[in-house]
Amino acid sequence: MAWGGRPQDGNNKNSCRPAASHPGTWHAPHYTSRVYAPAIGYTGCMYDYVLIAHSLWRWVVIIAGAAAIASAAMGLVRQAPAGPAGLYGRLFGIAVDIQFLMGASLYLVFSPMTTVALNVAEGLPQGSDLAFFGVYHGLIMTIAFLDVHVSAVLIRRAKTDAARQRRSIFLYGQTLLLILLTIPWWRPLLRV
Ligand code: HEM
Question: Which atom of ligand 1 is nearest the CA belonging to 36?
């Protein structure tokens, strides 16, 4: 497995062993949170696998969301039935569900960073990765997860195809925007 992290993070090794040294600060934008592993004595490999899957799956979420919005918009313009938009909407919901499960398992079990974040008693440093992943990312993405399902129900309840398509554009549009705004874009775009 090729890592390519910063050398001092200890992530450029073909192994799942924890980083050898600790950077001494929570503020640096670390490439992965394996750098926090020594702080909690973590040595497992599952973190690496789930992080890679969670990182790559974001593209499935984005593409499914964009397809749901685009097919609804095209259906509206062509005055076509709402069928395909409904299919892409369901795929968007399933993609977010899978991402949510991976994110929750990182947050609650595998991520050394959130394990540290949950155990910091005196508050997390503003603007740090610890604060972003420990609080904002998980919280806002959980709202997006609920949002996509509430949206699906509201879309299904619309009376006409055109109303369903308009709701798909607006409701899936705001869900996708929320997700796009909460993705940590400073992390690798393709983690393999
Ligand atoms: C649609 C929803 C989500 C998307 C698109 C998303 C996307 C991402 C991305 C792109 C990363 C960076 C991966 C990397 O470093 O290569 C990440 C990290 C992370 N995500 Fe999510 N995420 C979502 C939902 C969630 C949820 C709901 C949770 C928790 C409840 C969560 C917890 C985490 C954690 C803990 C990390 C950092 C792990 C670490 O560096 O140790 N994510 N997410």
Answer: 41
Q: What does the buried/exposed string (b/e) look like for 27-50 if buried means 16 or more CB atoms within 10 Å of the residue's CB?
A: eeebbbbbbbbbbeebeeeebbeb
pLDDT tens-digit map of 172-191: 999 999 999 999 999 999 98
Answer yes or no: are the C-beta atoms of 31 and 6 closer than 8 Å: yes
162, 79 in Cβ contact below 8 A?
Answer: yes
pLDDT of residue 87 exceeding 80, the answer is: yes
| pLDDT level of residue 64 (50, 70, 90 thresholds) | very high
**What residues does ligand 1 touch, defined as CB less than 6 Å away?**
32-33, 51, 54-55, 58, 61, 96, 99-100, 103-104, 106-107, 111, 113-114, 133, 137-138, 141-142, 144-145, 179, 183-184, 187-188, 191
